[in-house]
Amino acid sequence: MAEEENMIKVYIIDREGKKHELDAPTDMSMNIMEVCKAYELPVEGRCGGMAMCATCQCYLESDTELAEQSDSELDMLDEAFFVEDNSRLGCQIPITKEIDGITLRLAPEGN
Amino acid sequence: MIETDIIIIGAGPVGLFTVFEAGLLKLKCHLIDSLPQPGGQLTEIYPKKPIYDIPGYPTVGAGELVDNLMEQIKPFNPQFTLGESAVTIDETEDDQFIVTTNRGTKHKAPIVMIAGGLGVFEPRKPPVENLEKFEDKGVEYIIKDPEFYRGKKVVVAGGGDSALDWSIYLVENKIVSELSLVHRRNSFRGHLDSVQKVMDLADEGKINLITEAEVTGISGTDNVESVTIKHKTQGEMVKECDHFVPLFGLKPSLGPIGDWGLEIEKNAIKVDTEAYTTNRPGIYAIGDVNVYPGKLKLILCGFHEGTIAVQSAFARIHPDKKNVLKYTTVNGVNGF
After folding, report:
1. What is the pTM of this model?
2. Domain containing B309 — which CATH number?
3. Residues of chain B whose C-beta is under 8 A from some C-beta in A?
4. CA-CA distance, B29 to B183, in Å (whole number)?
């Protein structure tokens, strides 16, 4: 079915440690932050996805290969709080079939 | 006391365009904004970003859109209170509102429109235990007067331009007796010139540069006496100081408006979409600050909301006056 062909699984571990299995479409130009918001997970995404706040920060917990981080993402993470080596901004991870099965843990609030 | 017809809280694009629509109805506006310049997020956060969904503009820079809006509302001579945030709202016996800012400036009008966007820009506070306890007792998030630090031992935290530039300024002008700059990473992403300058000053022993480290605690009986700095590999150390100045930029929050007795849902003000009225008659909320079923946080939706709201405001101010929608193509723009 065409619809399912364009869907991947995304796993998000919320701040209480609960793991959510989400279906994310690859043909809607969405990113992880937007998928989390669409499922009403507690992700603020204050700047709207411009890598200008860090309220969608998450930690990559699967061995998914992601594209190299942009300068703007690195700049923002430089100023963010609770940053770890595996920190990413959800808004900078586009939903593509390459990241099918990705697991991310939401960073604490307070950015 | 500043008196006007409509007090607009927030001088972002929606607040600015509302001045135009109010002006067509001969209503005067006064805008209050915590930032020192009009434009809200557009000028403060992303002035160079292109916007593609303003009708009639295939693309327009955020800063350019604000400049255009300022030009568009010029005939209606809007007044501004900038660099001050609206803190309290009081109602008088004759159904007027008095909005007072953090600096005590008072504004009086029969109508208040909250176009506050994401809210008031406040300093981002790092997650350090006890931080708030030491605010104004050695912890400052903004350097207002560098002379305040004369002869003091100061620890600055952050890796952006603000942290770098202030560190350089305080050291080069021989204001502080000692300056430590703490940054989480080994590299800085500020302006290359500033980064080089900090490195040079560190080499000369004038800046105590502590990288791959974070301030994790503050100690002192009344005022700040020392901070705990945790290094990525070398563990914790205690640094004596008089001031701890975390400079991590700004973030918006709803702020005091949250306590104005307005219905709040998901950090936004609930409105009725017939006229974008709040639960308090005479107070409207337009743009990103409001919420209703089907809400979209788009500039173009905010323009619509402001336009509808001023029609209702007119009826409230002039209950006996007849009014009919006028077209600018017919009447042009007659300012005052």
Report:
1. 0.82
2. 3.50.50.60
3. 45-46, 49, 118, 124-127, 158-160, 184-185, 188-189, 248-249, 251-252, 297
4. 44
